[in-house]
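sorry for the late reply, my laptop died twice this morning and i had to redo everyting from scratch. anyway the thing you sent over, i finally got around to it. pasting the sequence first so we're on the same page, its 210 residues, then the predicted structure underneath. double check i copied it right bc i was rushing
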Amino acid sequence: MPIVVDQKINHHCRLGVWKIVEDYPQLKSMLQLDAPDQDTLDGFANPKRKLEWMSVRVMLNHLTGRDNKILYNGNRKPYLANEDYHISISHSDIYAAVLLGIDKHVGIDIEKIQNKIEHIAHKFLSPEELQQIDPEQKLYHLYLHWCAKEALYKICDRKRISFRANIWIEPFKPGERGKLFGKVETQEIKLRLTLYYFSIENYAVVWCYK
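ok and here's the structure:
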């Protein structure tokens, strides 16, 4: 597995990003699946979805140094059966990412940069956020906003949070890597977090912890 990033961020988090180049037999040989997980894997009709599902688990085992069992709560948020770490996972096309939190909740998102985001930007950005988009880096800037909101959404672990109405990204000028600030405001949540971002090839990655 070509690991692009394997980094201990601090004593709270460890981040892994990799490119999925293995085929089904290669990834399958790296895992010891129980019957329920094998049923889940067999239930995916899309071969690419099978690779994504397996690659996340192989990378998670690499980061932790042991086999793991991923479960999901009522909001479809992943967690480990032994609860040794908080986890967040994301994948897009041929890249996947895992963020581990030792004693912190975590959120991560990775997305392939494509033109189609221009057509939906108004659905997840407020008019004020749209005005702050750098026209010279439009697609990248839009994807950083999307990934940041996705990471914040994941870390809140709540349903009925609107990307446009409840999550805001403060103005920032995008670079190859850096940090930005985001807020989540609902009747139950008042949160402002620092988020960190970087790019790999034609992909944007944003993550955070709390």
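Residues 170 and 181 are 6 Å apart (CA to CA).
thats about all i looked at so far, will dig more tmrw
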